[in-house]
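Dear H.,

Thanks for agreeing to be a second pair of eyes. The structure we're designing against is below in token form, covering all 240 positions.
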């Protein structure tokens, strides 16, 4: 399993939200590229970035800090938030991004996901953010009647590189991930699944690893900033 340290970008700073609430943001670093380098120096092999403002705006807002991270950090990086057309997908991949994460458009324009995955094999992931089993879009602000597993299965033949599954109610809450629903999703599809939301301890990572499903990795943010998870130890646990 791969550990993806998360850098959530709001107004040019590295922050963490509580359960997706933009009004409940804690600033952890006003230099996101420096934060990214800390993670890389500690041994991480991937970075997970989210343009929070972009998720609400529907187009990139925090492009400058993302570009600074791509320039300084020579590890594969994935980005979600505000990526809703081919021009934006092409722009980010041309700047050295390894993987774009398509969330809102996976619900509203699934044909774009298929087109992008075909045009850029291994560079397109689907972000499925859920509240009580149903998908939420537009920065988690819009509830849908789409069920998580139904959406994931609809992309089985599309060639997407991964599904990033976030339980919104767990995100930033330091209460542990929703292991049951994450494992159920991973067992329901052949697409690699990355767990996100609530990963707050080494025990959480061990539980995900032992959940009985073939998880590709896990994303953690607040716990790394707070020191609840030691990155070097976490990387060792997931490689064991």
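And this is the sequence the design step returned. I haven't edited it by hand at all.
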């Amino acid at each position: 399993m791969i550990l993806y340290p998360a850098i959530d970008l709001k107004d040019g700073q590295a922050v963490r939200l509580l359960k997706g609430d933009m009004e409940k943001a804690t600033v952890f670093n006003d230099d996101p590229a420096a934060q990214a380098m800390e993670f890389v120096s500690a041994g991480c092999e991937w970075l997970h970035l989210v343009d929070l403002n972009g998720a609400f705006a529907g187009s990139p807002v925090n492009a400058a800090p993302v570009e600074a991270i791509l320039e300084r950090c020579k590890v594969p990086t994935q980005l979600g938030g505000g990526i809703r057309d081919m021009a934006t997908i092409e722009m980010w991949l041309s700047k050295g991004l390894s993987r774009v994460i398509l969330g809102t458009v996976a619900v509203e324009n699934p044909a774009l996901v298929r087109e992008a995955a075909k045009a850029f094999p291994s560079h397109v992931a689907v972000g499925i953010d859920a509240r009580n089993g149903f998908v939420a879009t537009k920065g988690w602000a819009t509830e849908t009647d789409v069920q998580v597993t139904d959406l994931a299965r609809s992309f089985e033949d599309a060639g997407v590189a991964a599904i990033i599954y976030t339980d919104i109610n767990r995100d930033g809450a330091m209460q542990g991930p929703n292991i049951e629903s994450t494992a159920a999703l991973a067992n329901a599809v052949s697409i690699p699944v990355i767990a996100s939301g609530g990963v707050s301890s080494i025990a959480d990572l061990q539980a995900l690893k032992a959940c009985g499903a073939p998880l590709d990795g896990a994303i953690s943010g607040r716990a790394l900033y707070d020191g609840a998870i030691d990155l070097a130890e976490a990387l060792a646990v997931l490689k064991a």
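Two observations from my side: The chain has a mean pLDDT of 95. Residues 80 and 101 are 4 Å apart (CA to CA).

Warmly,
E.
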